[in-house]
Amino acid sequence: MTTFDADGRTLERVREHVWELPQEDGMNVPARVLASEELLEHIKDDDTLDQIANVTHLPGVVTNALCMPDGHQGYGFPVGGVAAMDAENGCISPGGVGFDINCGVRMVKTTLTYEDVAGREEELVDALFDAVPTGLGGGGVVDSSHSAVEEILEDGMEWALREGYAVPDDLEHCEDEGRRPDADPSAVSQKAKDRGANQIGSLGSGNHFLEVQRVTDVFRDDVADSYGLEEDQLVVLIHCGSRGLGHQVCSDYLRRIEDEHPDFLDSLPDKNLAAAPAGSALADEYYGAMCAAINFAWVNRQLIMHQTREVFADVFDTSWEALGMELLYDVAHNIAKKETHTVDGAERELYVHRKGATRAFPAGREEVPPAYRDVGQPVIIPGSMGAGSYVLRGGADSLDVTFGSTAHGAGRLMSRTRAKQQFDADDVQTGLEEHDRIYVKAQSGETIAEEAPGVYKDVDEVIRVSDDLGIGDKVARTFPVCNIKG
């Protein structure tokens, strides 16, 4: 097949799993979709293709706007969208980052095996649910003062280290060592700070979760050994973001763009692409505020990990250190970073936007922590709570193909509204327990229905495409044991 008919749009096959929307009608560059034909059948069912084409209208976009294999309709950018804009002559787009700034995933290793927890799943899930705040609104591990919030926004995980919620090894195994140095707390509104003050160390709701998993498969023994993973090992996955603070940062700057750059906004095909011109005061302020929200999200996940360590220590009656509860890695989604990439043979500084996409740098890139620089950056991709998740490593071709990026999950097949109409929460919860021995506990039955396994694409197919393209190489697969949600 050399073309793919997507209900009015024709995608041209560049090579296996790479499909292009040719440049036309105001597009500055072509758009590309990285997907198998099976995944394209789902991607074409919503506005994903229109949205990735719209991204190419943003000024300064280079090479291609990209949709990852898990792509689906979002706001402005599709979820799974990657685009790089020139940092001097382009723009930075809050719409290309999203409301949940630095929604991300971290994996915590243990020396426990599945046999160690068998029969104690309910005890463990209940203890985790009691220790980790979930759901909408307030409630966190710490209720911080104004000065503490300022320090968190400025210092990220360095604050957690000072306060005793982290150890040095945690920072060494986190993207950017858990701190964006360009953070500017003064660019974050007081309303945003107030919203975040009592949410530090909380999961929130929606697709956020904490999940105990077992490693079921290892695909690359040498890389898995470098990551400290082996079959039947228990690990913990934590997925959440910057909570109300990040949402408010995005809202604040979307309104400011409307007020300060209306002509620029009117030139775009979708107002949800809202962007500030590179070099403008507003672009610089947004970047500083976004980096501060990134720091906040890293601390949020760190405090949840701290609580998780305490729970495991209590349930298994030994210290978390003795249980080997070390951080494998923490990866960020929903983010825009200044990065240097080779474009047409020349080094350029770019705002690389990853909206529901994961950085996937290969071996040798200086941003990869020293512990993993020889093998490549760990990439953690959660699937649905009935299908399992994957650990990848940054692929050798990722810099050339995707600005060092890959998918961030399985990708939704249906809206939350439709999911609640189609799935019954009690049936989902009971089915997972009886058929798969997966124990799920949530604040809301609606959340379970919204996150039913049938709501998501086939994560195995998403990973196959990533691996085939050489942008994210599969290392290990995990399967849920117990899960808590908002």
What is the rounded distance between the termini?
44 Å
* Count of runs of 4 or more consecutive helical residues: 17
Structural class: alpha+beta
What CATH calls the topology is tRNA-splicing ligase RtcB
Main beta-sheet annotation: 8 strands, mixed
Supply Rg: 21 Å
What portion of residues is helical?
Answer: 25-40%
Instruction: Give the tally of β-strands.
Output: 20
Q: Any idea what the CATH superfamily is called?
A: tRNA-splicing ligase RtcB
Beta-strand percentage range: 25-35%
Oligomeric status of the shown chains?
single chain
Give the number of domains. Answer: 1
- From the coordinates shown, what is the CATH architecture? Alpha-Beta Complex
Regions with little confidence, pLDDT below 50 for 5+ residues:
none
Briefly, what CATH class? Answer: Alpha Beta
Strand order of the largest sheet: 1-2-3-4-5-6-14-13
Q: What spatial form do the alpha-carbon principal axes imply?
A: globular
Q: For the residues shown, what is the average pLDDT? A: 94
Helix and strand topology:
Blueprint: E1 3-6, E2 9-15, E3 18-21, E4 31-34, H1 37-43, H2 48-55, E5 65-72, E6 79-86, E7 91-92, E8 104-113, H3 114-117, H4 121-131, H5 146-155, H6 157-162, H7 168-172, H8 190-197, E9 209-218, H9 221-227, E10 233-240, H10 243-260, H11 262-266, E11 276-277, H12 281-315, E12 327-332, E13 335-343, E14 346-355, E15 358-359, E16 378-381, E17 389-394, H13 398-402, E18 405-406, H14 416-422, H15 425-436, E19 439-442, H16 445-450, H17 459-469, E20 472-485
Parallel strand pairs: 4-5, 19-20
Antiparallel strand pairs: 1-2, 2-3, 3-4, 5-6, 6-14, 7-11, 8-10, 8-12, 9-10, 9-20, 13-14, 15-18, 16-17, 17-20
